[in-house]
Amino acid sequence: MENKKWGFKKEMELNTESDISIRGVLNMLKTNLNKSDVRPIIPLGHGDPSAFPCFRTAKIAEDAIAEALCSAKFNGYAPTVGVPSARRAVAEYLSQDLPNKLSPDDVFMTAGCTQAIQTIITVLADANTNILLPKPGFPYYEAFAKSRQVEIRHFNLLPDKNWEVDLDAVEALTDENTVAMVIINPGNPCGNVFTYQHLQKVAETARKLGILVISDEVYDHLAFGENPFVPMGVFGSITPVVTLGSISKRWIVPGWRLGWLVVNDVNGILKQHGIIDCIMGYLNLICDPPSFIQGAIPDILGKTKEDFFLKIVNIIKETATICYEGIKDLPGVICPSKPEGSMFVMVKLDLLVFDDIMDDIEFCIKLAKEESVIILPGISVGLKNWLRVTFAIEPTSLKDGIYRFRAFCIRHAKKP
Ligand SMILES: *Cc1c(COP(=O)(O)O)cnc(C)c1O
């Protein structure tokens, strides 16, 4: 046994980006908290409000899970594409807002929106393939595309145009190896909601370039400004669209791990190119979302009452206003637009205003240390010297957090 050579060919690929990943940064900030501060920690860094009582999910959703579990109908393996009743329910739920109705065969059930992202990127990955991602964006796309050796190219979202896609950049970046562009609507991290007209332009650009649009709609219907939420699938007759979604955000149950990948492809382009077969092939390889959660989906999607959604959207609308009004006129921070959707807003730091702050990371470390407020530095979502602020927390905690944030900015601003 001496000189035994192990067969491992690969060195452990440490994710070099992990130090700026959202979780990595938030953990680092937590180690900088001042333990002798008796005030509660205000978490404005991550988008999971499920711990706050006012964001508890709908009773009907909890009952649906209990009923599916106790029915003993969902104790077995599910088909890898998903439980038929769940696929049908998602098709009906999304079709309410679409001109071309979806069939259950267009729907694939996944473990959260995260697994839908994994699935579509894996299916599209091929030698030399590249994919266009928004900047700022949701860094999981970068991390996962990298792990599949897919080249990443970034197009900007334009702060002066309410964070619309820079479509000229999309055209300039596209070549014969470009397979898709990703949009996130309502937007994480920008809190914007794309207009119908802009989405149509996105579709027309994609058709001209011959690329797929991947539309991350995990914040579907969390829109509370002027622009109503319009699903990208509306334009599925212009260009193929793959919609990714889940119940994580609208129902505030990210731990239930239930999402979907949906194909809006009126002209059958994806089928013709074998993409649908590849999706099914990949789903055969990976774990399904739990059967009983899928079993509850028809009731969750079909029976949740409008008053639950209204209550949640109204709280988030209120907190978005508290957040925006509280920071928009502060020294050193610039907020290009009022958030109109999702749970986030991007604010820019004017570092010249501050005495002793070098960049967004230092800002967030000092804020954690001095005020016990956690905010995500923009570098984690692709924009250095910006901040991503999550406002989806209990309004009283948010007010406290914004009050401390203001005190911090004023204290660190240069004295005249
Ligand atoms: C939260 C989030 C996801 C992941 O959704 P899960 O259903 O929790 O897996 C995907 N995309 C964006 C933009 C998100 O904010």
Structure keywords:
alpha/beta, Aspartate Aminotransferase, domain 1, Aspartate Aminotransferase, domain 2, 2 domains, eight-stranded mixed sheet, 13 helices, binds pyridoxal-5'-phosphate
Q: What can you tell me about this protein's structure?
A:
The chain has helices at 22-31, 59-70, 84-95, 112-124, 140-147, 167-173, 196-209, 269-272, 275-283, 291-303, 306-327, 360-371, 395-412; strands at residues 42-44, 107-110, 130-135, 151-158, 164-165, 178-184, 212-216, 241-246, 259-264, 333-334, 344-349, 373-377, 386-390. The protein is α/β, with parallel strands linked by helices and 416 residues long. It has two domains: 2-55 and 307-412, Alpha-Beta Complex (Aspartate Aminotransferase, domain 1); 59-303, 3-Layer(aba) Sandwich (Aspartate Aminotransferase, domain 2). The strands form two sheets. An eight-stranded mixed beta sheet has the order 2-9-8-7-6-3-4-5, sandwiched between helices. A hairpin with an 8-residue loop joins β12 and β13. α4 (112-124) packs across α5 (140-147), α4 crosses α9 (275-283) and α11 packs parallel to α13 (395-412). The chain is globular and about 65 Å long. Bound molecules: pyridoxal-5'-phosphate. The site of pyridoxal-5'-phosphate has 13 residues, from α4.
